[in-house]
Amino acid sequence: MPVVSQFYGIVIKMHFNESTQHNKPHLHAYYAEFKASFDFDGNILEGNFPIKQRKMIDVWINIHREELEALWKTMRNYNEFFKINPLQ
User: Fold this and answer.
1) What DSSP assignment string belongs to 19-48?
2) Category of 69 on φ-ψ map: left (φ > 0), alpha (ψ -120 to 50) or beta
3) What is the pLDDT of residues 17-55, one digit of tens each?
């Protein structure tokens, strides 16, 4: 699972091919011992995350939503990925 972005100790990853467990476009976020899957609206699909870092992910998703959607399609259709700028 490639790293798509990293900021403030948060690591964002996406799977190339994942089971249909949650088939809607989503990303996986990791911070210390926390991990969660987020949809592109910033909702947690699975797992849990500290509130402060969850807010940072929500801001990052809002800034990069179009890129995330393009990346999702690229990874699903071509098994390729690109990095997305971190939150600054």
Assistant:
1) -GGG-SSEEEEEETTEEEEEETTS-EEEEE
2) alpha
3) 655 555 789 999 999 999 999 999 999 999 999 999 999
- Single-letter code of the amino acid located at 77: N
pLDDT band at 5 (very low <50, low <70, confident <90, very high): very high
Alpha-carbon gap, residue 68 to 43, rounded angstroms: 14
List of residues 6+ apart from 55 with CB closer than 8 A: none
Task: Please give the model's pTM, rounded to 2 decimal places.
Answer: 0.90
Q: How far apart are CA 86 and CA 17, in angstroms?
A: 24
